[in-house]
């Protein structure tokens, strides 16, 4: 009898009170095949909008009639070689320009299955659930003063090291990374700064006093351990994070993911400080082969002396900064911006993790590569770049580095059973 399993399986995990977090590995096993039998292992899911994501890999069973992706190389399909999490990492949408994720179904087919035939029945199947919030983590909506977002608190009395989590130019409130970090023992404020609730619908300027108010609110919480906190930001959020590290003494650890070191498009204002932006050169936008917007050329060269006033004065930073760079970023030249920032920062205050082949949206491991997607305010989908295998490796390595960096700079978190 053919058996397909994933360990831990979601139903067993729930009974044990342990949900399997999306950044943790699972093990897929197939048993009961004939020796050397050629099979297709397919994973698929439907997201909240009904969009289907799929990945498949072709294997030959070993002499005992088993397939184990942690040991056996995929012969082809969505990937090739030994990738223990390949059936999850290489999920791709049936339609272009979609992002993911959660409940995944695994199916086993005899021989090569290149298409999707509803009439073809699998030899075996099972289901795995990938969670972004661990057991006991509490989500608290935040609507205090001007601050809007969601606070994720680990179980227990605390106090826990505090982190503010920021995303980019799409706006709104994005929470999955905050949930994962809270499941690691951090108290995390997923912070919106436009296009959410009663915040401005469009981003016209970066009011740093808003982010200062958010930092003070987080540090006042009885379960948050001060006196310093961390900030994680990607894209426009990384630009904001670097500015927070520059001007706010509360920020002692900053994770900058594919951002800039200059103001772009919007000025920064903070008390009596105003940093003018470098204007976008939108006439330089190009279209990719699938019709997405490639924005990599709309950013003027920041080394032009005319833009000196737009630089974030990072020489004032007193904390530590971890720069995470995808060298195949098609949004902008993240590596150049990280290098320019590091050159001006105090010695030993920052380091760069640079990943060839990784795109703009470097997310926790288990997140499929999103090389193009639609975002709020853009007339077409936007190209983010990245190549499947190096991007997957970058996500696995950078997430480990990010968690270790935050633990080192903010203090070890409480141990949680996950």
Describe the structure.
The structure is a single chain. This protein has 418 residues and is α/β, with parallel strands linked by helices. The protein has 2 domains: 3-129, Acyl-CoA thioester hydrolase/BAAT N-terminal domain (Immunoglobulin-like, Sandwich), CATH 2.60.40; 138-410, Rossmann fold, CATH 3.40.50.1820. 18% of the residues lie in helices and 28% in strands. The chain has helices at residues 10-15, 86-89, 176-183, 208-220, 236-247, 334-344, 388-410; strands spanning 3-7, 27-31, 38-46, 52-60, 76-77, 92-93, 103-110, 124-129, 138-144, 147-153, 160-166, 187-191, 206-207, 224-234, 251-257, 268-270, 273-275, 286-287, 293-294, 320-326, 350-355, 372-373, 382-383. The strands form 6 sheets. The chain has an 8-stranded mixed beta sheet, sandwiched between helices. The longest helix has 23 residues, at 388-410. It is globular and about 75 Å long. The two termini are 32 Å apart.
Relevant terms:
single chain, 418 residues, alpha/beta, Rossmann fold, 8-stranded mixed β-sheet, 6-stranded antiparallel β-sheet, 23 strands, globular
Gist of the model:
It contains seven helices and 23 strands. It is of the alpha/beta class and 418 residues long.
Under the CATH scheme, the architecture of the largest domain is 3-Layer(aba) Sandwich
Q: What's the CATH H-level homologous superfamily of the largest domain?
A: Alpha/Beta hydrolase fold, catalytic domain
From the alpha carbons, calculate the radius of gyration and give it in angstroms. 22 Å
Separate helix tally: 7
User: Could you please say which CATH topology of the largest domain applies here?
Assistant: Rossmann fold
Q: Note the main sheet.
A: 8 strands, mixed
Domain count, please report it: 2
Question: What is the mean pLDDT?
Answer: 89
Q: Hey, roughly how much beta strand do the residues contain?
A: 25-35%
